[in-house]
Amino acid sequence: MARQNEGNPRTSDKTIGRLSLYRRLLNVLQGEGHRHVFSHQLAGIAGCTAAQVRRDLMAVGYSGSPIHGYEVVRLIESIREFLDAPGGQGVALVGVGNLGKAILAYFTGRRPNLRIVAAFDNDAHKVNRVIHGCHCHAMADLPQVVKKLGIRLAIITVPANAAQEVAEGLSRVGVRGLLNFAPVRLRVPPNVYVEDIDMTMSLEKVAYFARLAGAEKEGKP
Amino acid sequence: MARQNEGNPRTSDKTIGRLSLYRRLLNVLQGEGHRHVFSHQLAGIAGCTAAQVRRDLMAVGYSGSPIHGYEVVRLIESIREFLDAPGGQGVALVGVGNLGKAILAYFTGRRPNLRIVAAFDNDAHKVNRVIHGCHCHAMADLPQVVKKLGIRLAIITVPANAAQEVAEGLSRVGVRGLLNFAPVRLRVPPNVYVEDIDMTMSLEKVAYFARLAGAEKEGKP
DNA sequence: TACTGTTTGTGAAAACATTCACAGCGTGAG
DNA sequence: CTCACGCTGTGAATGTTTTCACAAACAGTA
Predict the structure, then answer these.
(1) What pLDDT, on the 0 to 100 scale, is given for residue B5?
(2) Strand C footprint at Cβ < 7 Å?
(3) B103/A200 Cβ within 8 A
(4) What domains can you pick out in chain A, each with its CATH number?
(5) What is the pLDDT of residue B1?
(6) Which residue of chain A is at minimal alpha-carbon distance from B188?
(7) Per the CB < 8 Å rule, is A206 touching B102?
(8) CA distance A66 to A68
(9) At a CB cut-off of 8 Å and minimum separation 6, what does A49 contact?
(10) How far apart, in Å, are the Cα atoms of A97 and each of A94, A174, A206, B103?
């Protein structure tokens, strides 16, 4: 079995993100009946350059042909091998408010490799009910449930003031990756990876750059 | 009036994001009664280095004192002047599904400078109702409403297959910034800024790096 | 067979972002 | 007054990501 090159310079954050994107695009292409794809085509759909695509694909260790480009099926498979945990991973969702529910709905029936297998909330009205196909447990049961299901990933959709405590609780029971929607910077042990989705920040970025774009009347000649 | 330095190297994406973050942290500090703050303190809360904070703050053109650090109130004000449009900007939200509703709820009563002033959907059950404090219009009325309210920013929370069309429609009626939640790369005119929030991609990133962190048993000695 | 056109994979260069490190400053101690 | 301290602002160094540009590969054509 081909061990993925060992002392390699750790694949970057951004490359991983784009690989995930490429895979999704490739699935669409496959659905449309494409057998092969060139780097510049993928780049066109993904919104980046062909060189970027080729550079990213170096990480997964699958080579295309200079004549036919990349074989769609094989490339999808190679990305899957590179990105996904064998056998899939269960995900916990903590905080079943508006956003939490929306995310449950959003992820239901998507990538079967990453399934939300348990939700948690401390609102008695939600506990022990099934919401968008997912059982909602009491917060107090989090440690047992996480351990029993072997959960290593969690999505945090609790209010800002509860997020740090939740993150600590999750880290303590073996969770190694957090997708955090609370507008707070979490302090976690170094073996836990945190990805923040900060909608307020993103919206402010949009507002700033939209304003710039609008103000750019006198462009360069 | 101090014109913001003109031929300056365009302030980066990342810096803008962090400025938004600093502002939020500063608001918390202010609420806790802090009058002054040092770069290293801000860095500690924001999760970056002191040099980074100082470098970012160069963009806003407010200098701290080597003795007291930054005056919280004045710094907030300077960031506000730098980031915000004077008088605030209205935002449209297109697609009032689970996610759209959650976002309406999330942004209601936050930054008064960025308010969602109109929602759009083509589900007759939602049209002409007020959802989380926001009037929902029919998609067909989008051009008129956007023009009448002078909206230049929009949040896209429609299904993937409708997103491109919606983005084009918005671009056509003067919207200059899009916050896109649909898992699609939008093709828009170059004077429209797009920021993507791709939850699937983020979750896959978390899964990948969490797995790496877990596998790192034999660290370096 | 030889030549053409197109694409991959990848060193090298460029662009961009972060961190280092220090001059300069103002305060408080002596 | 003089000194020492701790912080800011920023030039320079370092690190990271993206882009350039070209050798190598090979199908098609004649």
Answers:
(1) 43
(2) A 38-40, 50-51, 54-55, 57-58, 62-67, 69-70; B 12-15, 48-49, 51-52, 54-55, 65-67
(3) no
(4) 13-81 (1.10.10.10), 89-201 (3.40.50.720)
(5) 39
(6) A47
(7) no
(8) 6
(9) A43
(10) 9, 24, 25, 11
Q: pTM to 2 decimals?
A: 0.94
CA distance A104 to A25: 23
Length in residues, chain B: 221
Structure token pair of residue A55: 């550079």
Give the number of beta-carbon pairs within 8 Å between A and B.
201
Q: At which residue do the structure tokens 């694949």 appear?
A: A11
The two three-digit tokens of residue B132, written as one number: 């989380």
Of B219, B215, B181, the residue nearest B94 (C-alpha):
B181
Round to whole Å and give the CA distance between B40 and B48: 9
Nucleotide lying nearest to A10, CA to C1' measure: D16
For the cut 90, the answer to whether the pLDDT of residue A112 exceeds it is: no
pLDDT of B108 reads: 86
With a cut of 60, say whether residue A115 has pLDDT above it: yes
Distance from CA of A162 to the nearest CA of B (A): 15
Phi, psi of A50 (to 5 degrees): -65, -40
Contact predicate A53/A19, CB 8 Å: no
Percentage, residues of chain A above pLDDT 90 = 89
Ranges under pLDDT 50 in chain B: 1-6, 217-221
The DSSP 8-state label assigned to residue A48 in this structure reads: S
Q: How far apart are CA B98 and CA B205, in angstroms?
A: 24
